[in-house]
Amino acid sequence: MIETVTVTGSTNADLIGRLGSGESLADGYWLRARRQSGGKGRGGRAWVSPEGNIYASTIVNLRDTDPAAHTLSMVAGLAVWRMVTDRLKVQNRAKVLLKWPNDVLVSGAKIAGILLERHGSVIVTGIGINLSHAPDIADRKTTSLADENSEMDANPDQAMLDLAACFSDELAIWRDEGTRSLFARWQAAAHPVGTQISVHESDGAIVAGTFAGLADDGGLRLCLANGAVRTIHAGDVSLIAEG
């Protein structure tokens, strides 16, 4: 079920609030806003949310048999990657890459953002996708499907239906096949092993190296200049080629 509202502060905040008041929401429920006045991304950053793009949040009720909850960020990333890739002309599809942990890039520019928040045994997954226009952000490149010569009309209603279908598919695979399959499929859609990257850690430190794949828990394996490999579990990753 997709519920659409004209405007709200934040779809994630709305769902967290409803869960906090005791409301029960089923898997597959989506709250979508045509515009947000207080959208947010990872690290508390503001997510610019004018009309014409996708701003939506969905519910995953965790089961005892589910893989680790934090890996749902990769489930969401793959769902967005599929939806975006399907909308681009064939010659442009190879430009779509996943960047750890859950960014979706086209030609090195961010086209989508994902934010996971937990309330008890429920994960609220917020997704923003630039369909018609990209926000102007000082410290990073952004793009939209319209900027990338999308194969399809950037109709937010149809795009939302397609996103929900892709997420449902990826969630089922995550539950049926576990993280080994998830990580392999995520890696196939991501920047390749050996890509030069830098990681801005929460303490302000910046460490550079090459991408060495994913750890068993989904962490980023970073090969340092001295050959040592570190596993990163939190931080902002930049591809050196992005500049």
Automatic annotation (TrEMBL):
<dbReference type="InterPro" id="IPR003142">
    <property type="entry name" value="BPL_C"/>
</dbReference>
<keyword id="KW-0092">Biotin</keyword>
<dbReference type="Pfam" id="PF02237">
    <property type="entry name" value="BPL_C"/>
</dbReference>
<dbReference type="InterPro" id="IPR008988">
    <property type="entry name" value="Transcriptional_repressor_C"/>
</dbReference>
<dbReference type="InterPro" id="IPR004143">
    <property type="entry name" value="BPL_LPL_catalytic"/>
</dbReference>
<dbReference type="Pfam" id="PF03099">
    <property type="entry name" value="BPL_LplA_LipB"/>
</dbReference>
<keyword id="KW-0547">Nucleotide-binding</keyword>
<dbReference type="GO" id="GO:0005737">
    <property type="term" value="C:cytoplasm"/>
</dbReference>
<feature type="domain" description="BPL/LPL catalytic">
    <location>
        <begin position="1"/>
        <end position="175"/>
    </location>
</feature>
<dbReference type="InterPro" id="IPR045864">
    <property type="entry name" value="aa-tRNA-synth_II/BPL/LPL"/>
</dbReference>
<keyword id="KW-0067">ATP-binding</keyword>
<dbReference type="GO" id="GO:0004077">
    <property type="term" value="F:biotin--[biotin carboxyl-carrier protein] ligase activity"/>
</dbReference>
<dbReference type="GO" id="GO:0005524">
    <property type="term" value="F:ATP binding"/>
</dbReference>
<protein>
    <recommendedName>
        <fullName>biotin--[biotin carboxyl-carrier protein] ligase</fullName>
        <ecNumber>6.3.4.15</ecNumber>
    </recommendedName>
</protein>
<keyword id="KW-0436">Ligase</keyword>
<dbReference type="InterPro" id="IPR004408">
    <property type="entry name" value="Biotin_CoA_COase_ligase"/>
</dbReference>
